[in-house]
């Protein structure tokens, strides 16, 4: 099956800014919405609105594609919540085979995803009261039962948390068949609430916090020793380490421990296993860079190495391929990706842009708002380059004049091969001259660079684009916040689409 981005008679519409735009096909709109979903309020779209749009789009797509997309979102984009939404919606609409149960068993990869899926099922079906999960879809039930068999005692204990649905409730509901006597014993312990307390950084530090100490100095010593033990044990996960760098530095752990921390952060195998989204490294970088510790410089260097490792498989471009990397710094990009995050869409734009810049040998970088400005950056230090861009975003204003990127190339008669624009795609012209990205791109290809390609990296998934996305126009759409978005470039250059990798998934 091959998906086209647009039918040829697609009628123009307008975007959230009221500017001319084109609708995406249901497949591509769902892909873009899923790849950029944090299920929290955005500049143009509330969380409930995005969730309802996801549900509506699932109904417009083939069940197999929805299932393939859910697997892609979980396994390639490393998203957790939105694949569960797709599972629940597919269960509501699809009957007659085992597609849903196979999908659930594949995308549920942590015990707390069992309870999260059930909680969303209750919400999506407007259930309330004491029997919020009665009449559970049989295919969901079967898939969740299979998922239970994947987890050991440590995982069950670690993720057995308070909430609307507990793991114990889920166990009673889906009735998993234990694969052996040992697992049955674990299930029995879960029911009785007798699973051993897991060894995690949360439980260890909680125990320290509940202790009694003669002085504050004794308490600080206990915290420091606990962090040193956790790090030395090798049982502190990469994400936990990344998120707690500030706490570790402020605990004043030993030099030997900090050396171990930096070694773990910079280990390419640890980075690969951690499956961190690139902007997580930026968040950690910002948390520690202003701390007074003498170890900060080493940590920042380790984080630069880590994000470089995350891009090691990113296909770069040699000196013969002329590339433009343009980052949108408009007001709508100054929105946090989730309610609990300090990371903005703007940050995601810069991180992905600088990752790509680091892999190109002939590249122009810049940012656009009211104006477009070229900014030369050293190739290599991704996070440092992001921070330099971040400090300069006010230099171009906060409108969305993305067409100026192409106009600049046209006015210079400068032929390039690839233009990469990282944006929320809600572009409009604030200058009043009527120019659009579609007009500028068509003229640029006609007059200056007939074989140039334009790649729109959609970071928000609002469902429209400012120009037609077709092979014959040289325009492609890629969506998401992960470095995996760059894998799509190979598919595009080989005649495929952003959906090519999704289509390959077998269930």
Automatic annotation (TrEMBL):
<keyword id="KW-0694">RNA-binding</keyword>
<protein>
    <submittedName>
        <fullName>TROVE domain-containing protein</fullName>
    </submittedName>
</protein>
<dbReference type="GO" id="GO:0003723">
    <property type="term" value="F:RNA binding"/>
</dbReference>
<dbReference type="Pfam" id="PF05731">
    <property type="entry name" value="TROVE"/>
</dbReference>
<comment type="similarity">
    <text>Belongs to the Ro 60 kDa family.</text>
</comment>
<keyword id="KW-0687">Ribonucleoprotein</keyword>
<dbReference type="GO" id="GO:1990904">
    <property type="term" value="C:ribonucleoprotein complex"/>
</dbReference>
<dbReference type="GO" id="GO:0005737">
    <property type="term" value="C:cytoplasm"/>
</dbReference>
<keyword id="KW-0963">Cytoplasm</keyword>
<feature type="domain" description="TROVE">
    <location>
        <begin position="13"/>
        <end position="319"/>
    </location>
</feature>
<dbReference type="InterPro" id="IPR008858">
    <property type="entry name" value="TROVE_dom"/>
</dbReference>
<keyword id="KW-0479">Metal-binding</keyword>
<dbReference type="InterPro" id="IPR040322">
    <property type="entry name" value="TROVE2"/>
</dbReference>
<dbReference type="GO" id="GO:0046872">
    <property type="term" value="F:metal ion binding"/>
</dbReference>
<dbReference type="InterPro" id="IPR036465">
    <property type="entry name" value="vWFA_dom_sf"/>
</dbReference>
<dbReference type="InterPro" id="IPR037214">
    <property type="entry name" value="TROVE_dom_sf"/>
</dbReference>
């Amino acid at each position: 099956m091959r998906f086209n981005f647009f039918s040829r008679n697609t009628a123009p519409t307008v975007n959230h800014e009221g500017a001319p735009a084109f609708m995406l096909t249901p497949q591509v709109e769902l892909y873009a919405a899923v790849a950029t979903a944090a299920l929290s309020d955005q500049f143009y779209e509330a969380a409930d609105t995005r969730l309802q749009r996801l549900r509506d789009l699932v109904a417009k797509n083939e069940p197999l594609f929805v299932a393939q997309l859910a697997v892609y979102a979980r396994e390639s984009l490393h998203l957790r919540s939105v694949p569960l939404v797709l599972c629940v919606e597919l269960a509501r609409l699809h009957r007659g085979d085992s597609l849903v149960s196979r999908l659930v068993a594949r995308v549920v990869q942590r015990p707390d995803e069992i309870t999260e899926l059930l909680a969303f099922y209750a919400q999506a079906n407007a259930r309330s009261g004491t029997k919020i999960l009665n009449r559970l879809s049989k295919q969901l039930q079967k898939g969740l039962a299979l998922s239970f068999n994947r987890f050991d005692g440590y995982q069950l204990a670690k993720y057995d948390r308070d909430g609307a649905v507990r793991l114990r409730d889920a166990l009673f509901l889906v009735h998993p068949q234990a694969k052996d006597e040992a697992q049955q014993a674990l299930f029995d312990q879960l029911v009785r609430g007798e699973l051993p307390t897991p060894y995690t950084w949360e439980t260890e530090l909680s125990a320290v916090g509940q202790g009694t100490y003669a002085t504050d100095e004794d308490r600080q010593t206990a915290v420091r020793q606990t962090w040193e033990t956790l790090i030395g044990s090798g049982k502190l996960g990469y994400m936990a380490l990344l998120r707690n760098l500030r706490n570790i530095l402020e605990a004043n752990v030993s030099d030997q421990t900090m050396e171990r921390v930096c070694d773990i952060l910079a280990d390419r195998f640890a980075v690969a296993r951690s499956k961190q989204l690139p902007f997580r490294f930026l968040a950690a970088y910002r948390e520690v860079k202003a701390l007074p510790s003498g170890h900060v410089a080493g940590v920042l260097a380790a984080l630069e190495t880590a994000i470089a490792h995350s891009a090691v498989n990113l296909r770069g471009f040699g000196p013969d391929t002329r590339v433009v990397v343009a980052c949108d710094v408009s007001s709508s990009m100054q929105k946090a990706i989730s309610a609990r995050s300090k990371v903005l869409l703007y940050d995601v734009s810069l991180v992905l842009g600088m990752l790509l810049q680091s892999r190109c040998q002939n590249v122009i970088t810049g940012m656009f708002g009211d104006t477009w400005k070229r900014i030369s950056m050293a190739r290599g230090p991704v996070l440092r380059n992001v921070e330099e861009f971040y400090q300069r975003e006010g230099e171009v204003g906060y409108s969305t004049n993305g067409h100026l990127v192409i106009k600049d190339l046209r006015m210079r008669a400068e032929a390039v091969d690839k233009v990469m624009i990282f944006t929320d795609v809600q572009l409009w012209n604030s200058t009043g001259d009527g120019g659009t990205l579609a007009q500028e791109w068509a003229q640029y290809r006609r007059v200056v660079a007939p074989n140039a390609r334009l790649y729109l990296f959609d970071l928000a998934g609002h469902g429209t684009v400012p120009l037609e996305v077709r092979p014959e126009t040289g325009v492609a759409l890629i969506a998401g916040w992960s470095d995996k978005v760059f894998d799509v470039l190979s598919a595009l250059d080989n005649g495929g689409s952003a959906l090519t990798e999704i289509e390959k998934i077998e269930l």
